[in-house]
Amino acid sequence: MNERSRESTRQRILSASQKVFAEHGYTGANMRLIAQGAAVSVGCVYLYFKCKDELYLTLLESWMNELDARTTDALENIVEPAEALAAFITTGIVYAREHKEMVLLQGRDLGFARGLEMKQQFLRKRRSLIEDIVRKGVATGIFCDCDPGEAAKLIFCSMRGFIVTMMMGEEALYSPEAGVELLLNGLLRRDTP
Amino acid sequence: MNERSRESTRQRILSASQKVFAEHGYTGANMRLIAQGAAVSVGCVYLYFKCKDELYLTLLESWMNELDARTTDALENIVEPAEALAAFITTGIVYAREHKEMVLLQGRDLGFARGLEMKQQFLRKRRSLIEDIVRKGVATGIFCDCDPGEAAKLIFCSMRGFIVTMMMGEEALYSPEAGVELLLNGLLRRDTP
Amino acid sequence: MNERSRESTRQRILSASQKVFAEHGYTGANMRLIAQGAAVSVGCVYLYFKCKDELYLTLLESWMNELDARTTDALENIVEPAEALAAFITTGIVYAREHKEMVLLQGRDLGFARGLEMKQQFLRKRRSLIEDIVRKGVATGIFCDCDPGEAAKLIFCSMRGFIVTMMMGEEALYSPEAGVELLLNGLLRRDTP
Amino acid sequence: MNERSRESTRQRILSASQKVFAEHGYTGANMRLIAQGAAVSVGCVYLYFKCKDELYLTLLESWMNELDARTTDALENIVEPAEALAAFITTGIVYAREHKEMVLLQGRDLGFARGLEMKQQFLRKRRSLIEDIVRKGVATGIFCDCDPGEAAKLIFCSMRGFIVTMMMGEEALYSPEAGVELLLNGLLRRDTP
DNA sequence: GATGAATGAGTCTTCATTCAT
DNA sequence: CATGAATGAAGACTCATTCAT
Predict the structure, then answer these.
(1) pLDDT grade, residue D5 (50/70/90)?
(2) N or C end of chain B, less CB within 10 A?
(3) Which strand F nucleotides have any atom less than 7 A from protein CB atoms?
(4) Is B20 on the interface with A (CB under 8 A)?
């Protein structure tokens, strides 16, 4: 219980919080539950995080960082815009599937400012990433001559709705592939002469 | 002190709740705030709604009913599937714009069963409405040969994401028209011979 | 709703209170329930009784008066002490059977002084009535040479316990006659030569 | 602020509750009063007892257990029925004298089921204990040929009334010995030829 | 570093009482 | 005389946070 136990305890707390926040939301989660999940005392949690907010914010930050890293990874060697879009979407959905806690990103019960800002900045960044891809596609003539900003918003909202729906425990979800396909080709029949 | 009519007080409470729930979420909202917003005493709220749940559920139900009615109206005289889709989406988004409170439909912190059920049933119904439209479009050959279920999910999630994004106070949102256009035609350039 | 309605409304309120107090106890009873039972508005109750206490006290007083009257009646023409005792006990038990509300006489949740005093005085009076009977029986040599005070207490407590038990809804109760018989003759076998 | 040991705090809370319940009854007692009596915060009470009911039930149970144990002890080496009866009654009355809180056993304001059941079962058990004693006395010919059930009820109610009277703070009570004597011999003079 | 007992402000809810009509 | 909408003080219970050990 000494050596590098400090870091391991911190991690245990963090991962317990994740579960509890995911299951109960920010307001609904309580410190006793988190402490129990981490097998430490309540007071101990406060040795590592000075309040509930900080715990929450730390999680938020680490999710954002990881999703960011994965996305960068996924896009690294792709040049084709359609392919890049597919990679972006798939990465996001797969990540969300693994991290139900990410709901919180969508969650409404953040009364505090810092979390909101962080989050909004993150989302803005992701949207502009999509926008870049679309712009490139339009430039190369692969995508139709749409407004890249609007297209990015549509794609972004679509992903977000997907994640929210998934998080709410509602069964019906499209497969990433089918989704990408539809976004690329649209609903209307291509005129095959 | 009590010249106000029963119905008017009820309405004032309802509309105050709407604001408070929208701003703080279910768990975060508190009866004192709601009462203050309605300019009545806390006890008075309980004269009209027997508990917080009932207040919430009443709001939820009325939103769902109104959105339902509006959607039915909008689709009444439309036969063309693409047009119907556009009408469905536009109605939903316009409604959400007017009723920020609808976030709650997306909300995470409903611990109680009845609200969740009601909500899920409502969402299911709406999704199946989209599915019907898509199916018809595929049948008539206007839409491409996609899986109507999957397409409905995409469209549905897309709308939902849109609403969530809007609710979170984030600025960037696509215009319904541009969105519909993209969903219909897809991102990829149509091959112009 | 005019003529002599005043008195009739008062009576309706009183009799509704009786039921409600009997069923819920003093603290547990609430004015809305009483008003409903009397088919008047809550405010109307306050037109007749200035507060919950007064309502309660009024009932208490009327029970005591009635029991008092009945007891006096029952004892009027009896000279024989054993017979008088039997009459006293039987009257009390019969009355209690008809007036479940009388529990309240036994009830614990009277936080206010006036009721308590009234009640204690009433009980003291009844006990001294028994004592007189016993004293006379001892004087005439019909009763054994016991301390009349102690005997009165025993008899009094016995009746009281009977009533409490009855009120608590517990099934098993002795019949007044068997009880009187036992009190008179004792448990021990009489030596029959 | 927290040097007090867990068990000692629990005991302090329990004994404060005893006083408060005894003085105000179940409904009338409130957690603030109990906490104050135990010199802890309200929240602290809930660290030890998860609700008001549990606090009450804990007390109820411990009284019943102790009175049970004492009664068993007292009767252990007695074979003579008259003596056994005297021991039973005396034990009960002495116990009640030491534990004014026992009123609660008589209390009317238990809205919750478990407490009532527990209590009624306890009382039934005690009554049947008396019945056994009486039956034995009748069988051996020491007691007169009465119905043991009825006699048990009388004795039981008598004790109960005694306790209630005592609890209500009313001064006058028979001494256990005089009471037993009367129950055994009856009021009527034994015919000494 | 870790514990867990303790706090106190805050939450939902109830209810005796008042008062304009 | 009667209504019933409204009040506000209180009650049971929860929980983030602190602190002696």
Answers:
(1) confident
(2) N
(3) 1-21
(4) no
Could you list the pLDDT tens digit for every one of the 193 residues in chain A? 444 577 889 999 999 999 898 888 788 889 999 999 999 999 999 999 999 999 988 998 888 899 999 999 999 999 999 999 999 999 998 888 887 766 655 555 555 556 777 888 888 899 999 999 999 999 998 888 888 988 898 888 888 888 878 777 665 566 778 888 888 887 777 665 4
Q: At residue D126, what is the residue type?
A: R
Q: Residue A175 class from Cβ within 10 Å (0-12 exposed, 13-18 middle, 19+ buried)?
A: middle
Find the residue in B nearest to A193 (Cα). Answer: B193
The answer to whether the Cβ–Cβ distance between A157 and B161 falls below 8 Å is yes
- Do B89 and B151 touch, CB atoms closer than 8 A? no
pLDDT at B193: 44
Nucleotide with smallest C1' distance to residue B44 CA: F6
Q: Please, are residues D87 and D28 in contact by the beta-carbon 8 Å criterion?
A: no
**Domains of chain A, with CATH numbers?**
1-50 (1.10.10.60), 57-185 (1.10.357.10)
Mutation target for D interface from C171, C187, C192: give the one with most D CBs within 10 A.
C187
Cα D155 from Cα D180, distance rounded (Å): 9
Cα separation, C171 vs C161, whole angstroms: 13
Flag if D175 and C150 touch (Cβ within 8 Å).
Answer: yes
Q: Where are the alpha helices (DSSP H) in A99-147?
A: 103-106, 113-139
Q: Within an 8 Å CB–CB cutoff, is residue D69 touching chain C? A: no
Residue in the block written with tokens 């999957």: B150
State the DSSP code for D143: B
Name the residue in chain B with its Cα closest to that of A127. B172
How close is the nearest chain B Cα to the Cα of A3, in Å? 40
Report whether A149 contacts A135 (CB < 8 A).
no
**Side chain identity at residue B174, one-letter code:** Y
C78 CB within 8 Å of a chain D CB: no
Distance from CA of A97 to the nearest CA of B (A): 15
Query: What letters, b where the CB count within 10 A reaches 16 and e where it falls short, cover C157-178?
Result: bbbbbbbbbbbbebebbbebeb
Candidates A1, A63, A13; CA nearest to A42 is A13
For residue B34, the distance in angstroms to the closest alpha carbon of chain A comes to: 17
Nearest neighbour of C188 by CB, restricted to D143, D154, D161: D143
Question: Does the pLDDT at position D84 exceed 50?
Answer: yes
How many CB contacts within 8 angstroms connect chain A with chain B?
195
> How far is residue D151 from each of residues A111, C155, D134, D144, D160, measured CA to CA in Å?
70, 14, 7, 11, 14
The tens digit of pLDDT for each residue in B73-112 reads 999 999 999 999 999 999 998 888 887 766 655 655 555 6
Question: What's the CA A106/C1' E13 distance, rounded, in angstroms?
Answer: 31
C158 at the D interface (CB within 8 A)? yes
Chains with at least 3 CB pairs less than 8 angstroms from chain B: A
Contact across the interface for A182 and B154, Cβ inside 8 Å: yes
pLDDT band at B24 (very low <50, low <70, confident <90, very high): confident
Quick: pLDDT tens for B158-170.
888 888 787 766 6
What is the predicted pLDDT for the residue at B4?
A: 58
C-alpha span between B100 and B95 (Å, rounded): 9
Q: Tell me whether residue D188 is exposed, middle or buried, using C-beta atoms within 10 angstroms of its C-beta: 0 to 12, 13 to 18, 19 or more.
A: middle
**A142 neighbourhood in chain B, CB within 8 Å:** 188-189
DSSP state of B100: G
